[in-house]
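Risk mitigation, structural track. In case the binding assays with coenzyme A fail to produce interpretable data, a predicted complex structure has been prepared as a fallback.
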Amino acid sequence: MKSHGLRVRGDWPDLMQMSQGWAKAWARPWNDDFPAVALRLERGNARFLRACTELVRELATPVLSPALLPSRTSLWTDAGYEVSDQLLLLEHDLRDIPAGTLGSDIAAGGFEPADELYQIDQVAFPVRWRLGRRGLEESIEATVRTVVHRVSDQEGTTGFSVAGVGLGQGYLQRLAVHPRAQGLGHGTALVRASLLWARRHGARAVLVNTQAENERARQLYERTGFRPVPGGLVVMAAAPD
Ligand SMILES: CC(C)(COP(=O)(O)OP(=O)(O)OC[C@H]1O[C@@H](n2cnc3c(N)ncnc32)[C@H](O)[C@@H]1OP(=O)(O)O)[C@@H](O)C(=O)NCCC(=O)NCCS
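Fallback model:
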């Protein structure tokens, strides 16, 4: 594999770090099933991003960006990327909720046993949008404070949500209910429990994103008080050579 003038640490499919001077980026498999590279730019210009892209596209394609605000895409465009997916971004202003309307009896807990979350994520989402083990870990580590809410039946855990708060901003990072338990109100209860937790932990608003075509999730979020943020988010893909 050519280095393209970059310093590379880590071996694919483990997390790879690429650097050049102060510029730094990370690459990992998109998830455990969809053959693609998830590339994250920590800092650096379009030339650096292009060099990283050249390097990692020898490992897998497509090479995909994280979910980006439309205002943050110009550097990726300059590096030869095009919009691949439009995502809905929705926000819930927690000050809008009259006190006492959010009650939920779902207990808040931690990440373990993580395998239960992984199994549900795998069956609830289409291949392209599964998080995979590493993606799930990253959703937990993305914010300073994180919580996992779980629902279960006699056979075990049937649904979960991951929520986080950082700098007064809440994030609903993940929501999934096993197909055998969908339509019973668990998704709604998990969202409500996450909102309540976020408000208790100092969030003024909660953001969530989902695939543009995920009509069921959009309806659930709007029903629970989320409103669309104009422009949404986009995932960019490196244009083929
Ligand atoms: C989106 C998702 C989390 C919803 O979970 P859920 O537990 O089925 O959600 P709910 O049961 O609370 O609500 C879903 C529907 O069931 C209905 N419902 C709620 N309680 C019900 C009950 N007691 N009996 C029958 N139906 C009920 C709701 O009216 C709602 O109707 P809709 O399909 O028209 O929106 C689930 O479908 C899922 O995991 N999907 C795949 C992953 C995903 O898309 N995650 C979120 C986006 S990132």
